[in-house]
Amino acid sequence: MEKTMELHVVKYDKECKKTVEESTICEYPLNVFVNGEHLTVLLCTPEKLKELTIGFLVFKGIIKSLDEIKSLEIDEKSGASRVTLKNSQFNKELYPKQILPTAFNENEKSKFFSYIIDSMKISLINNDNVYIHVDKIYDLMIDNLGYSKTFKLTGGAHCAALCDEDKVISICEDVARHNAVDKLIGEAFIKNIYLKDKIIFVSSRVSFQMVYKIARLGVPIIISKSAPTNLSIEFAKALNVTLIGFVRGERMNVYTNPQRII
């Protein structure tokens, strides 16, 4: 399937206008079924759909390893990803649609963070033997941002890269920033890549949910071209994750746990 399509638009430059051909990114609805039950619809870029499905199932806590999947079939024509688990007792009602409890409020963040960490069985990041050099951060961000031909054509794609302290291991792109990370996670599971000594670069802003998604897999460093939110910073601090934002040229902000930057 094509990731982009061509269309005619009326382009204005001050008061001058002309009809030109432009590229736009494709948004594809992927319906995810687990054991015959419809779980969700993911609006995504139509590539690496198997990786996206696996990454999403990992994020939701439905699987912890590929061994739990009996079969996974992608039907591109009907827009369906059909997963059969070895566990025939799957009940989608056991998996909440939101992470934060309904009573969450700004004044009790630390209390709710502790609840989430305990209830979701998230281990605090204790790997302080993972380091990355400042210059390498700038280089790897350029590699991540330069990868996406789709972004260059349309301006509508997000990129996520899995790296070690020296090089890019894998890059995924998608119209949705969370999908890009899910594809990256799914690909890592398929290739059996160890994640607890890796680093994830993203082109998008970093939300609380993004930190939750990445940190629960044990990844110690998250680096973004864009801004983190206040909740993402506080949650990263609670989890002992190094969070870096606004990597632009040779500038960046280290928001939490700077001991991993050398």
TrEMBL record:
It comes from Clostridium ljungdahlii. Its main location: cytoplasm. Mo-bis(molybdopterin guanine dinucleotide) binds at residues 246-251. It comes from the Bacteria. This is Protein FdhD. GO terms for biological process: Mo-molybdopterin cofactor biosynthetic process. The gene is fdhD. InterPro entries: Cytidine_deaminase-like, FdhD. It is found in: Cytoplasm. One of its GO terms (cellular component) is cytoplasm. NCBIfam families: fdhD_narQ. Gene3D superfamilies: 3.10.20.10, Cytidine Deaminase, domain 2. Keywords: Cytoplasm, Molybdenum cofactor biosynthesis. Belongs to the FdhD family.
